[in-house]
Design a protein that fits this description.
The protein has 242 residues and is an alpha/beta fold. The protein is 44% helix and 13% strand. The structure holds zinc ion.
Length: 242
């Protein structure tokens, strides 16, 4: 029976929902993120906001939320020239993958997270990867996760469990999951403090949070929120007209 977990927390909607999932399930939860020269520091700032708001506003979870770890992965910036690390315009490549794809990124995240989990005596890794995302990153697929779980468990001679609570659900269902886990207070926290926009826009506030409103990440988040809000009979966060 597992009692502790390490959550890969980027500061976005998905990983924050995963953090809530882990806090509801495990007695001790630590978080890890990676600094690889993201174009926007706002994402790394968002995750600290998320942690501090949970500590302040969710007393049942605050006692479970343990250490935070930030690992430097600047080497990814040396390898990659994709849109996530340089100032490039988001577009789809001929191979069907967006130019935000950084080869091997998620494999490195999981490997380093497992190494950290080993040191911290944590056996469960929780990550917000999802096969239903538009992007279809191959390093976020279920088969990849299962292969990584096996490789990491064999390579470190320790049985790791990689949990992916969002793998088969869409963005609307992710909002719903957050509400089930933490009520409207968690929805409000995610809207206000998590960050998704590829352009790092923290100026324009929408019912679903901050963002440019036009990049693919904003579009996905906005559509998911609209579907979630429309399905809710009496939502305090329901947009007046959307
Ligand atoms: Zn955007």
């Amino acid at each position: 029976m597992h009692t502790s977990a390490l959550v890969l927390l980027s500061g976005g909607q998905d990983s924050t929902t995963c953090l809530a999932y882990a806090l509801a399930k495990y007695e001790r939860v630590e978080t890890v993120s990676f600094d690889y020269g993201q174009r926007h520091r706002v994402e790394l700032d968002a995750r600290l906001q998320v942690r501090s708001k949970i500590l302040r506003n969710f007393p049942a979870w605050a006692g479970r939320l343990g250490n935070d770890h930030l690992l430097n992965l600047a080497v990814l910036g040396e390898i990659s020239d994709g849109a996530m690390t340089r100032d490039m315009v988001f577009k789809m490549e001929a191979n069907g993958l967006p130019n935000t794809f950084v080869p091997g990124r998620n494999l490195m995240f999981l490997t380093l997270a497992a190494a950290l989990a080993y040191r911290r005596d944590l056996r469960v890794l929780v990550t917000g990867v999802c096969e239903t995302d538009f992007s279809g990153y191959p390093d976020c697929r279920d088969d990849t996760m299962k292969a990584m779980q096996l490789a990491l468990s064999l390579g470190m001679d320790r049985r790791f469990l990689i949990e992916t609570p969002l793998m088969w659900i869409d963005k609307a269902a992710t909002w719903s999951m957050a509400e089930v886990l933490g009520g409207v207070a968690l929805i409000d926290l995610i809207v206000e403090h998590t960050h998704t926009c590829y352009l790092g826009d923290r100026e324009h506030r929408h019912v679903w949070g901050y963002g440019c409103g036009t990049c693919p990440a904003c579009g996905l988040r906005a559509r998911g929120f609209a579907q979630y809000a429309a399905a809710r009979p009496q939502s305090p966060t329901k947009p007046a007209s959307a």
